[in-house]
Design brief:
3% of the residues lie in helices and 37% in strands. It is an all-beta fold and 173 residues long. It has a domain of 115 residues: Methylamine Dehydrogenase, Chain H. Strands 4-5-6-7-12 form a five-stranded antiparallel beta sheet. The chain has a four-stranded antiparallel beta sheet with strand order 8-9-10-11, with no helix packed on it. Strand 9 and strand 10 form a beta hairpin. The protein is globular. Keywords: Repeat, WD repeat. This is WD repeat-containing protein 64.
Length: 173
């Protein structure tokens, strides 16, 4: 078993139950240091989901890391991020069987999203039934203006790294 903690500086820490820090994650987002306000995993703990104060949702694959947390080659990979709300995310739930993420915000809305693609499926209180099988439609809620972003393999900003060398001004260059 591991613990995940969300922090004001946007960092997510993965801890052993003995209290040892195993990994620090910094979500890839358009804003630096956005406070993380909600965390959840799927039942089998293969995915870690986080919501932040700006209304964004981030999704990581953590299965290979959990197999052997001491192995530095086993990485946690951010796979997807999307804007779910215009305001702070305060609730986050992943329904594994239907592959749906439920988000709640301080704006009072509760919305459904496809977990693997970040496609908008609807909101609680709408007059039509949810179409969970039709994920091909790319629609957005009226207050969201950006489509989901699938992370590329080369996006390494998600893991905090400590540099061993200082930056030095070279006036000749």
């Amino acid at each position: 078993p591991l613990l995940a903690s969300a922090h004001e500086d946007g960092c997510i820490c993965i801890w052993s139950i003995q209290g040892n820090l195993l990994k620090e994650l910094l979500p890839f987002s358009k804003y630096d240091s956005v406070p993380v306000t909600a965390l959840c995993t799927d039942i089998s703990t293969e995915m870690l989901l986080a919501g932040n104060k700006e209304g964004d949702i981030m999704c990581w694959s953590i299965a290979s890391f959990l197999e052997d947390p001491q192995n530095s080659k086993k990485q946690i990979k951010e796979e997807l991020c999307w804007t779910a709300h215009a305001n702070e995310v305060v609730g986050l739930f992943y329904e594994e069987e239907k592959n749906v993420v439920v988000t709640a915000s301080t704006d009072g809305s509760v919305r459904l999203w496809h977990a693997k693609q970040g496609n908008y499926l609807g909101y609680f209180g709408q007059s039509r039934k949810f179409e969970l099988s039709d994920i091909s439609r790319m629609i957005l809620p009226c207050d969201v203006h950006e489509f989901p972003t699938v992370m590329k393999e080369e996006s390494k900003r998600m893991e905090m790294k400590k540099l061993d060398y200082p930056l030095i001004l070279d006036r000749d260059k």
